[in-house]
Design goal:
Elements lengths: L2 E5 L9 H11 L10 E5 L4 E5 L8 H5 L5 E4 L4 E4 L9 H5 L6 E3 L4 E3 L9 H5 L5 E5 L4 H19 L9
Antiparallel strand pairs: 1-8, 2-3, 4-5, 6-7
């Protein structure tokens, strides 16, 4: 059964250890801007919200890629990027519903979570248990909706009016 990154938004304290582990794994340097997971953080509340690729079943990033550089790896069921084909157009960044894709100006290409080929380092370094790599126990669409609803709940609780456009 395929696995995916499961996020418990209530457990994340925003320590950013996952960002550091990820950037070391992929870039061999501590560089949160090069991490495949990013934390939206509210320091006063001690709250963080991890943002990473949800490995969407519909994968709008793959659908819009003009050169077919984004596809689904059938063995891990992850959405992957073929960096040899990526032309750096950034269309996938624009359509990602979770804001989980980023651009690497050094290499002129996009990047996102690749689940570390089935052994996500961020999970091993998350001492608060906010990240888990677990079997997909329910339909991904349902899980994505629940994650989005939970994210909305956390954001609206911490910053009332933020999602309604009020300041």
């Amino acid at each position: 059964m395929p696995k995916q990154l499961v996020i418990d938004y209530e457990k994340c304290v925003g320590c950013r250890t996952c960002e550091m582990a990820c950037s070391i794994q992929h870039e061999k340097a501590i560089s949160p801007s090069q991490s495949r997971i990013s934390i939206v953080k509210w320091d006063m509340e001690g709250q963080g919200i991890p943002i990473t690729c949800a490995q969407c079943e519909s994968a709008p990033c793959a659908s819009i890629c003009p050169v077919g550089a984004i596809s689904r790896d059938q063995s891990l069921r992850t959405v992957t990027i073929d960096y040899e084909r990526c032309i750096g157009c950034r269309m996938c960044i624009a359509v990602c519903p979770f804001g989980a894709m980023a651009f690497d100006n050094t290499h002129n290409r996009v990047f996102k979570c690749d689940l570390c080929d089935g052994d996500p380092l961020c999970v091993r370094f998350c001492v608060y248990g906010a990240l888990r790599y677990a079997e997909v126990a329910e339909h991904r669409g349902t899980k994505q909706r629940r994650a989005a609803e939970k994210l909305r709940e956390v954001v609206s609780t911490k910053r009332p009016g933020l999602l309604s456009g009020a300041s």
